[in-house]
Amino acid sequence: MFEATCHCGAVKIQASAEPAWLNECNCSVCRRLGTLWTYYHPSEVTFLEGAGKTVAYLWGDRGLEFHHCPTCGCTTHWEPVRKEGAERMAVNARLMDPAKIAGIRVRHFDGAESFRYLD
Ligand SMILES: [Zn+2]
User: Fold this and answer.
1) How far apart are CA 114 and CA 80, in angstroms?
2) Distance between Cα 47 and ligand 1 center (Å)
3) How much distance in Å is there from the Cα of 33 to the middle of ligand 1?
4) Contact, 96 vs 13, CB < 8 A?
5) What is the 74 CA–ligand 1 centroid distance (Å)?
6) 117 CA to centre of ligand 1 in angstroms
7) Which residue numbers delimit the CENP-V/GFA domain (predicted)?
8) Residue 43: how many CA atoms within 13 Å on its side-chain side?
């Protein structure tokens, strides 16, 4: 099990699988948030703490909700606005134990320009 916990502990997310890879994106929001994303099917993710308590930020075409903890401000995850049939959500791996994700490949996504992976 892989757990992502915000700084104050109000939000605790459990993922059922090891991240296949981690994504550092340079788009206007990800570069500011400093996130390292790992992607899951929503069925693979469980909120042990803080379900429904996080705050969503929407921008651009408003298709995704970027969530953060209302107390400590850590970015926890994103999920599609449209929950029905959603195939993907992302958990911020910066909230995972660094030792557990140390060997996992980090990819760089050019979300700012080409919308392609740079590797
Ligand atoms: Zn918190």
Assistant:
1) 22
2) 13
3) 15
4) no
5) 6
6) 31
7) 2-110
8) 4
Integer Cα distance of 102 and 80 in angstroms: 28
Mean pLDDT of 84-96: 96
The per-residue pLDDT for range 18-71, each reduced to its tens digit, is: 999 999 999 999 999 999 999 999 999 999 999 999 999 998 889 999 999 999
Contacts of 16 (CB under 8 A, 6+ apart): 1, 2, 40, 44, 45, 46
For residue 1, what pLDDT band results from cuts at 50, 70 and 90? confident
- CATH top-level class for 2-106? mainly beta
83 C-alpha to center of ligand 1: Å?
Answer: 24
**How far away, in angstroms, is 118 Cα from ligand 1 center?**
32
